[in-house]
Write a structure and sequence with these properties.
The structure holds two protein chains of two kinds.
Chain A (H helix, E strand, L loop, with lengths): L7 E12 L2 E12 L3 E5 L6 H9 L6 E6 L2 E2 L5 H7 L1 E3 L12 H8 L8 H6 L2 H21 L14 H14 L4 E5 L7 H16 L3 E6 L2 H7 L2 E6 L2 E6 L1 H5 L2 H8 L4
Chain B lengths: L1 H14 L2 H29 L1 H32 L6 H18 L10 H30 L8 H22 L4 E2 L8 E4 L2 E4 H23 L1 H11 L1 H6 L4 H27 L1 E2 L3 H16 L4 H21 L5 H15 L13
Antiparallel strand pairs in B: 1-4, 2-3
Classes of the chains: A alpha/beta, B mainly alpha.
Chain lengths: 259, 350
């Protein structure tokens, strides 16, 4: 076997997160390589979302470092992390409910816009050009995730599955290098799950690295080559789907110990 | 926070559903109709020119309340806090501009020249800026540390900040009414027997310009969009690269510069202020914000105008001793019959 020399896009380095006496994430280390689909799995309460929150700066880690594209982002504010190129979706959908799908995605491009106050107030050519570019890109993204028929619908009125897709489109609008998906297939039918995995592949083909949390082992096994398993905040396994599936500690974490 | 707001909205929606909602609406319309008929008989009895005169006062008064109400509604819209200190920021604006006038050579009885216009603009600018900085400081010191606390904590803090500011104003200019220099010329023109003065035009004009300016700002600029996004879902806005702290600070700043302009105009218009002006005017403006649909800036502008007009009409045609009673009765009626305010339901976007 040859040694791959793909540089890591994200390095989670001995990250620990404590909430008072509770250790939610315990000394976790792993790399996400550029251009891959990387998955983080584990039973409920394993600390997966906490780790996402640590990476995106919502709850900075207690100790340890997060390095993104050779740059330490530990303790950076969420909006800075977003500007640097990490986007995410939420486990429970967090859309701007009273904005149209189009406006949601347009807002995603907020951190990439440059129009000055003056331009915006008086609708100068600079502003118009930017608005057009932003709208075009937004429609492109809605098509990309396959919900262009809801362009002018309030986000709250979209069907559940489309809301999840809209959230992905909005995250992609920030033009990220790394996309974090927090249980993107939660509540999906098997058919929808298959379609979603197709979308994830499409995203990676467009040069965005995907790092996803998933509860459903089957989904993960089908989509990603490398998996890290968390249990009670600790990393208990890392490897290919095959290795992880046959790992004794993983089986125990999911199914309980055999007596 | 969002979920609580959502739950409240749903609950209210339920309350208003079906026949019960229609009866409530009907009752509200009936009450308004009775008031209008009463007013109508008075208007007919006292003649058209008196009506026009009162109408002029009413619109100017409403403009000032609209400016204050906007600050309440913007802050509520973005962090769901009733900033009780906002009225006192308005009073601070009145006090500060009163002190600034002589510094810029604007004195009662002096001639009003082109230079005076520039001086007046400078007074407006400085007052608005100072109020903005004051309100940002209040947010930074008193509210931001409590952003993740139970929502009662910042509310009580707001009451505390309000008392603190009133104390400062009390120490500054004492317990009695403070005279505010009457520098706007008494010139005006007569129309159908009513006099429309320079003061009226100034107040109405500035209010309209500021309200339109704010609407354009919120609708078009990046910061305005960031505000709307933050109001709807703070965490999601964060992940879109929106700096929440800055956006919230900007909201306090903008609300306060409007209050500063309102305070200056209040002084110029009524030529008086008092240390607890912010309490009474603030409560009325807050009522206006609720009346219009709190969280909605168009609602606040309309609510301020309507409440200000009701106040002036009541003062003009009925007994002014009862004006406060009427206004708070309106607050109660709105909360019973239309808890989301005039525009609260139709335009849910904050």
């Amino acid at each position: 076997m040859t040694v791959e020399v793909i540089p890591p896009i994200l390095r989670v380095d001995h990250v620990t997160k404590r909430f008072g006496g509770l250790v939610a994430v315990d000394d976790v280390t792993f790399d996400v390589k550029k251009g891959e689909i990387f998955a983080l799995i584990g039973p409920n309460g394993a600390g997966k979302t906490t780790l996402f929150n640590g990476i995106t700066g919502i709850f900075p880690p207690t100790t340890g470092r997060v390095i993104f594209q050779d740059r330490e982002i530990t303790g950076a504010k969420p909006h800075q992390v977003a500007t640097l190129g990490i986007a995410r979706t939420f486990q429970n959908i967090r859309l701007f409910e009273y904005m149209s799908a189009l406006d949601n995605v347009r807002l995603g491009q907020h951190c990439r816009m440059h129009a000055k106050l003056w331009d915006s107030l008086f609708k100068t050519p600079v502003e118009r050009a930017e608005e057009r570019r932003v709208s075009d890109r937004a429609i492109e993204l809605l098509q990309f995730v396959g919900i262009e028929r809801y362009t002018h619908t309030y986000a709250r009125n979209l069907p559940y599955g489309s809301q999840r897709r809209l959230e992905i489109a909005r995250a992609l609008a920030t033009n990220p290098a790394l996309l974090l998906l927090d249980e993107p297939a939660a509540g999906f039918t098997p058919q929808e799950k298959v379609e979603l995995m197709g979308l994830v592949h499409k995203i990676v083909d467009n040069g965005v690295t995907v790092f996803l949390i998933e509860h459903d082992m089957k989904v993960v096994m089908g989509v990603s080559r490398r998996i890290v398993v968390l249990d009670h905040g600790e990393k208990i396994a890392e490897g290919t789907p095959e290795q992880v599936r046959n790992d004794q500690r993983v089986i125990e974490a999911y199914l309980g110990k055999q007596h | 926070m969002g979920t609580i707001g959502e739950a409240v909205r749903r609950r209210r929606g339920g309350l208003r559903a079906g026949a019960a909602g229609r009866i409530l609406d009907f009752a509200l319309i009936a009450i308004i109709a009775i008031f209008l008929i009463l007013l109508g008989t008075k208007v007919v009895a006292q003649g058209g020119s008196f009506f026009l005169q009162i109408l002029t006062f009413a619109v100017a008064n409403g403009g000032i309340y609209a400016l204050i109400a906007l600050g309440y509604t913007m802050v509520y819209g973005i962090i769901e806090l009733i900033n009780f200190a906002h009225g006192d920021v308005f009073a601070f604006g009145a006090f500060l501009s009163a002190s600034l006038l002589p510094i810029f050579g604007l004195r009662e009885g002096g001639t009003f020249t082109a230079g005076s216009v520039i001086a007046l603009l400078a007074v407006f600018g400085l007052t608005m800026l100072s109020c903005g900085i004051l309100n940002i400081s209040i947010e930074r010191i008193a509210y931001r540390p409590l952003r993740h606390a139970p929502r009662l904590a910042p509310l009580i803090t707001a009451v505390g900040v309000s008392f603190f500011l009133e104390g400062v104003l009390f120490l500054w200019k004492g317990p009695s009414n403070v005279h505010y220099a009457n520098i706007i010329p008494n010139a005006g023109f007569e129309i159908f027997g009513a006099t429309i003065g320079a003061k009226d035009l100034l107040v109405i004009g500035v209010s309209i310009v500021l309200v339109i300016g704010l609407a354009l700002f919120v609708d078009r600029t990046r910061l305005g969009k960031a505000m709307r996004a933050t109001a709807q879902d703070r965490d999601a806005a964060l992940l879109m690269g929106i700096d929440i702290d800055r956006t919230i600070a900007a909201t306090f700043f903008i609300g306060a510069i409007l209050a500063g302009a309102g305070g200056t105009m209040y002084g110029l218009y009524y030529n008086t202020s008092v240390f607890d002006l912010g309490f009474s005017a603030g409560l009325v403006a807050f009522t206006a914000a609720v009346f219009g649909g709190i969280g909605n800036i168009y609602g606040a502008a309309i609510g301020g105008l309507v409440i200000g007009m009701i106040q002036s009409f009541w003062d003009g045609y009925f007994d002014s001793a009862w004006t406060q009673v009427v206004i708070f009765t309106i607050l109660i009626l709105v909360l019973i019959f239309r808890p989301t305010g005039l525009l609260g339901m139709r335009v849910p976007e904050k």
